[in-house]
């Protein structure tokens, strides 16, 4: 896309959904470093998300995680979000923190445990009804640690059965997003380890089931942009969980570890219609900010995704197609690299100015005094964290 006004329009209409848990304390199994001013409940998480939206203009949706964001009155939470100019995004189920799920949730050998897990997923659909959320995001930690521990194919049968019960419960405007992850916490087999397994289940379930690509959930060296192109072609790319990694599921800020990979992914998104509102790809972040300040880190991640998107939109599609047709390897690669090597920060600053925002959202947020305000106001009570 070389028409600058079309590029700007596309950047203005892209929506990036931020995760409630990204605003809470998090850490590794070694230590959680608490930060001042961190939210004490889901309402305060929404208030922080509203700051990110106020300064970037493109983050009006927030993913919730149940039970971390369980409240008495979801209608009140939704009204509060709306009052802040936000909408509730994906409802993330959690079947990985209950003692009963040690050997699996929906794939557990005991039908009573499977019932409990499926009931939680159904509760998440009730919460979608109450909040207007369109997306149920499913990630299963289910798997085994040792050869012979359980029946690999049998677990697929149990998974399919639970997914189909939940699928049947979805309303017309609701969909199921099935996330995969190579390993962890299971270390031998994982029941949904890769995009192929997720895709196969989604295909059988029907059009309301789509795959989530979490950019931190692959073996090192995996070509994620290939997966993206393939799933878009099949109409099965539902969403991204953006984050970046150097080693495994590091959950670092999106675009921090490998901006070139994020650009390559966004190039396939743009090229294959993934930015069109009708394709309905949900661009979510799924990351944790262990040592950096949370709101500024989410702002940085949003702008990193925007920069990768802007560069992808600047790819000269005609020149690229021409070079590809003539088999000119170096010219084709050159077209892509020209776009990647463009400094898009001035373009994005203009886009923000046209939206009535500060040219640099990161600096503007730091100058706003909000960070100091929340540190002073949010004393007492227990700070929310990943898993609380
Ligand atoms: C699992 O590693 C995962 O990526 C899933 O999306 C979870 O819901 C999320 O992390 C929790 O942070
Ligand atoms: Mn994820
Ligand atoms: Mn993850």
TrEMBL record:
PANTHER family, per the entry: L-RHAMNOSE ISOMERASE (PTHR30268:SF0)
Lineage: Bacteria, Bacillati, Actinomycetota, Actinomycetes, Kitasatosporales
Molecular function via GO: L-rhamnose isomerase activity
Enzyme class: isomerase
Enzyme Commission number(s) of this protein: 5.3.1.14
Keywords from the UniProt entry: Isomerase, Manganese, Metal-binding
NCBIfam families with a match to the protein in the record: RhaI_grampos
Annotated signal sequence range: none
Record has Ion transport as a keyword: no
Protein name from the UniProt record: L-rhamnose isomerase
